[in-house]
Amino acid sequence: MSETTGYLVLNTGDILEGKWLGTPKQEEGELVFNTAMTGYQEVMTDPSYAGQIVTMTYPLIGNYGWNEIDYESIKPSLKGFIVSTPSHNPEHYQSKNTLMEMLEEHHIPALSHIDTRALTRIIREHGEVYGKITQDPNESPVNTSVNTNIVSTVSVKEKKSYKIDNPTNHPTPHVVVMDFGYKHSIAQSLLELGCEVTVVPYNATFIEIQSLDPDGVLLSNGPGDPQALADLSENIKQISESFPTMGICLGHQLIALAHGATTQRLPYGHRGSNHPVKDLQTGKVMITSQNHGYVVDYDSVNMKNWYVSHVNVNDKSVEGLKHKTKPLMTVQFHPEAHPGPIDTHHLFVDFIQQFITKGEKQHA
Amino acid sequence: MPKKDNIKKVLVIGSGPIVIGQAAEFDYAGTQACLALKEDGVEVILVNNNPATIMTDENIADKVYLEPLTCDSITKIIDKERPDGILPTLGGQTGLNMAVLLDEAGVLEKYDVTLLGTPLETIQKGEDREIFKSMMKDIGEPTAESLSTSSVDEAVRFAGTVGYPMIVRPAYTLGGAGGGIANDEAELRNIVKNGLHFSPISQVLIEQSVKGWKEIEYEVMRDSNDTCIIVCNMENFDPVGVHTGDSIVVAPSQTLTDRQYQMLRTSSVRVIRELGVIGGCNIQFALNPDNDDYIIIEVNPRVSRSSALASKATGYPIAQIAAKVALGYQLDEVINPITGDTYASFEPAIDYIAAKIPRWPFDKFTQADRLLGTQMKATGEVMALARNFPMAINKAIRSLEIGLDSLYLPGVEKLSNQEIHTALDQATDERLFIVAESLRRGMTVEEIHDITAINKYFLYELEAMITKEKEIAAKEWQAIEAEDLRDAKSFGISDLTLAKLLNVDISTIQQKVKEEKLAPSYKMVDTCAAEFSAETPYFYSSWNEWDEVESLNGDKRMVVLGSGPIRIGQGVEFDYCSVHAAKSLQGQGIDAVVINNNPETVSTDFNTADHLYFEPLTVEDVLHVIEKENAQGVLVQFGGQTAINLADGLQKAGVKITGTALEAIESVEDRDLFYQLLQQLNIPHIPGDTVMAVEDAKAVAKQIGYPILMRPSYVIGGQGMVILHNENQLVEYLADLQATAHGNRIFPLLIDRYIAGYEVEIDAICDGSDVLIPGIFEHVEKAGVHSGDSVAIFPAPNLTKEHKQLIELYAQKISKQLNVKGIMNIQFVLSEDRKTIYVLEVNPRASRTVPIASKVTGIPMVDLATRVQMGESLSDQEWKLGLHKEVPYYAVKMPVFSTNKLPGVDPILGPEMKSTGEAIGLGSTVKHAMAKAFGWKENSLKALSEQDTIFLSLTKIDTKLSEQLKSVTASIEADPETATLLTEQGIQVRTTTNLQEAEQKCVDEKYTFIADTHRTGEKDQHVSLREAALRSDTLHFTANDTLSAYIEATTTNAESPVSIQHYRSNKPDLNKKERAMP
User: Fold this and answer.
1) Closest among B245, B372, B256 to B309, alpha carbons compared
2) Terminus of chain B with fewer CB atoms < 10 Å: N or C?
């Protein structure tokens, strides 16, 4: 059985022994845990996990296999995957492959039979943890930071347009999605609401975007530290002041940075499908899907022009911002869900509503 | 919005006696709710007539009314107490039904009582399937094609258009009583007719069957701000077709994609919003395994069995939070008590699997129909937590205490392939083991799925378990290495199973496990998958993983063993005892470690013990915990027979059994030793002997004389106990026993002469030198009726001073001789001439009557028993010694039965226990207490009038009953023999009816009640009549003494409700020692 033994060596000094799930392959990355009990395929294909080794806190993973519809990007970007007990006999009418088959296909190193709860506790207690998946327990991780160019590795290189066949909205609103590592469900949510969607590289300039004549711009989620993209601030500021703009996750952080706020690292991030968020306008609490390691500093928000629209019920951190005069809204959580609840899906409707109304007026 | 300020006093309605479909989960919910209300400064008035509960303790509510759960009784309480609000959603279906009745009677309006939590309208919307369906239609949520009807013909016409099979569900019933699946018109007619009888509003729902679909449940919470969260979802192992209460259930769902999980989550949220639920709600879905089609099966707008399971499975205290929400709090204002710094508005994430297996009463009711369907039959359940499915299932099986320790059911290998096929197709309590056997025989997952429709995910997991067992069995013991053991342990395989698989003695396994230093690690239940730090002292075992138990700080730690699943003979009363034992230890500055596996109970609430372990109650599992905790000893007297049965194994493993020594326990449990003891102490016992063979049995029976009382040794609740009148019956009984023993030995058996005397019992606290007896219970029915099934009066009204002195003396003798430290229960029989008192049995543990005696007298019996077990002396306590002076009021314990849920079970009273719960009635006289006890629920006691007809089929009649029957105003019908008997006594018989006609009239609900006391042991016309009474919900009596007591109660005017605190305030120091002046 020793030939299947693999190790996760952490920079905290901890060494966890497990079994290789698929072909052994060494890899390093930042360790993060996700508490969602369903949606491992969506998690694995979410580009925001680029550079990270992800562990699922739920121990039984792979039960319903792998299907063709729950891809959040064309391929997984994560560095490694750690589970407790994988299923090799998945059962679901949509399933096409097993978890292990897909790990093999995408060359993602993975370990099973790891005490993922112990690992989660290590991450929780240490905050920032880096690790190496290896066959040799004497190795240790060399990198202790995530590549600052990580977004460029997951963003599209050229613009791409999507539209649905029979849109209900006339005229069809056009939304440009700036891709920092966007989840397909974001585009899907917009398409389902009748939008035409153009996905552009994360570093598309104001001029390039203006040339697309969008009704609105959406800055997507993505991996890494938002401060690594500080040089984009000027561009983002200009875009967000010129078009109705929505930011999600990293997009939210970048817009905040561009408007003078600051961000900081959360001790160990929010990753899961169960985070309560309070809408401060309505007083309503919604359960959201989250995946972020950084957060906008509450006190750094310029309250003259902005207000905090949403806060996290548990740690009171900033979950959403709204500009007082411009059509500019951002959220830290994921209204597109997948995985997770769709309690906040209406935010896309609110976003689009702004320019549908505008459109009618223009054509009146 | 913070709490509603105008609500200062709240009436909480409990769920009453335990019946199938409504068990200990409501003690847990009610207790949590009362405490949550009190925490907010609300004065809590509780009405619940189930005395065996923690919730009816005086420290849980400010005033406790152990009073009938009837509209009349609760109205009087409202009139007296004038509460501002009423909270009915935590008392199960009973609580909801009471709220509806109170509202309809205009009581709530008249007294200006605010209904807290979910609005009444919602309750009715959820309950009335027609309204519910049309509402679902309005919001676009799918339900099954269905029709609510009160007409059999209409049901048949509808089925003709929709097609069979059809499911029948009666409205407003517990656990789906009276429902079923009809495959054709004949079946439909039968089931609908029956269902109409069961429904209090004579309405059934018939609907399109989605048998075979996945059955998924969501537990949802909503507050007044419209915040909705999912506490947990659950997936049934058994697909639609088996009642969820009878299904094996896992949490969370295992086979749903996130898309499907969210689809049903969204639907749940829409439904709970549309209904306007404030608090907890359970929603059941059927999901097509081949696509995303789903339908909503039903909604329960209240806390339920499932919510108790979800609470224990996740750690999220649903009932507690529901009570806060009912007071007006929002979920984001209430702290999650598990983590202490997150809020109740987040959805729990768990990092283990919870498996629930129901506990069925078929071990007791061997003649019952074991088929599972829409009618729930389980009396209780167990839950196991583990990091994988096989371990969860193995632990759950061990927790059931049905003599099994793995997926192997003895005897199953003898079934033919055809029998296996049938058993797969028609689900019974044994199906899990049949599936395992099919896999052992090489059937494929595909084949089993085709027959059972059980999701292949579960079948693959079971297959892996069987493969592992085969792999182990294929090895020689010498070849087994530590790694193999670790691997086996990660499947949750017990030492005992390993010993069987490897064909070695269990001690060999234990030794190796010890040598290799193998032990489980324990993981914490924290609601958040370790995302936040939590300090919950709530653990489950895992193998080959990191341990996270932080040692308790105190110097002393004791383990309290719980009593496992609720079953007949071992109910919620033992949970009451376990909880009090834990609290007593804490009061003495000792850390209490509780081990139990029943998710319905207060003992498994995370704040009962200092450390709670959700584990099977086997020697192996308990030992691991004791070693982990480094506990100084274990308390075995409070967890019923479950705990007592572990004493031997634990002591052999070196654990200190605190209190009464193991030898003393054995000397009262072993009949021969016990009789020797009594003879030595010069205490009369009923002639009897232990027999080891058939011939032996015949000889002994002849020698002591028929009728005889016969039973296997070491039993709970009189299991397998019978009264035999002649040798033919004896031979037949032995043959039956052998046939059902799966080839196991049926001997030794115990034979006693049957003496039809008067039964009395006591619970005594002993410290080896002194005893304290709070009082004596006297049974209404003569000996021969199991003590758990007899109506009992406390304090005993018909004993002389000499009788009482003798009882006290015997208790003292036994206590001293055995050096009993703690509590014991002694059952006596007073001969018919009232001259001799025999000691019938001694139970070296707390008994069913402990909570009643404690509540009625105010003596903290379990606390005292725990203290003496821990070494304190009785003379140091504040209470007087010996038999206490009688309280100036009476309590009557009334057994409550669920036999109407169990086709095939004859409701006749006998030596085998059949009741599932009990109600209490209190009064200033025996008569008044009796009236309260018989009138425990709506319409269970009514004055008889000329309009009433009663049917009697009696074997004999005594003077008292004769006099009573002479004066009843109701028309008496009787079978010919009884008619003769009655006429001889001068009792007027209106009509002579044969049994067959009587059965039909009974079904047609022509009788106010029937009495049939014939016990022949055959399935005859008498049994048939009694079963008809069950089906038609006709009141029935099977013993003259009960009948007599009932008739007296019908002529008694009800006393006003009085709280237990008020009863006791009369002479609070009656049995307290007089303090010497300093």
Assistant:
1) B245
2) C
